[in-house]
Amino acid sequence: MLDAVARNTQKGIRWRSVVTESALVRRLAIAIAIAFLTLFLVLPLAVVFVQAFSKGLGAYLAAFQEPDAQAAIKLTLLVAAISVPLNLVFGLAAAWSIAKFDFKGKSLLMTLIDLPFSVSPVVSGLIYVLLFGAQGLFGPWLMEHGIKIAFALPGIVLATIFVTFPFVARELIPLMQEQGTSEEEAALTLGASGWRTFLTVTLPNIRWGLLYGVLLCNARAMGEFGAVSVISGHIRGLTNTMPLHVEILYNEYNFVAAFAVASLLACLALVTLAAKSFLEWRAGDTLSGRPGH
Amino acid sequence: MEIKVANVAKEFGETAALRDVSLTVRPGELLALLGPSGSGKTTLLRVIAGLEAPERGLVFFGGQDATGLPVQKRQVGFVFQHYALFKHLNVADNIAYGLRVRERARRPSKDEIARRVSELLELVQLSGYERRFPAQLSGGQRQRVALARALAVEPRVLLLDEPFGALDAKVRKDLRHWLRDIHERTGQTTIFVTHDQDEALELADRVAILSNGRLEQIGTPDEVQDRPQSPFVLSFLGDAARFEARVAGDKVLIGGKPVPVDAHGHGDGEVALYSRPWQLRLVSPVGAHARGVVAGIRRVGGSRRIEIHGAGKDKVEVETSLSIEPALGEEVGLEILGGYIFPVG
Amino acid sequence: MTSVLPAHIRFRRASVIPGFGITFGYTLLYLSLIVLLPLAALVVRASSVGIDGIVAATLEPRVLGALKISFGISFIAAIVASVFGLLVAWVLTRYHFPGRAVIDAMVDLPFALPTAVAGIALVALYAPNGWIGALFAPFGIKIAYTPLGIFVALVFIGLPFTVRTVQPLIADIERELEEASATLGASRFRTLWSVLLPPLLPAILTGFALAFARAVGEYGSVIFIAGNIPYVSEIAPLLIVIKLAEFDYTGATVIATIMLAISFSTLLVINLIQAWARRRFGNA
Question: Which of A75, A123, B278, C169 falls between 20 and 30 A from C252, CA-CA?
Answer without folding.
Answer: A75
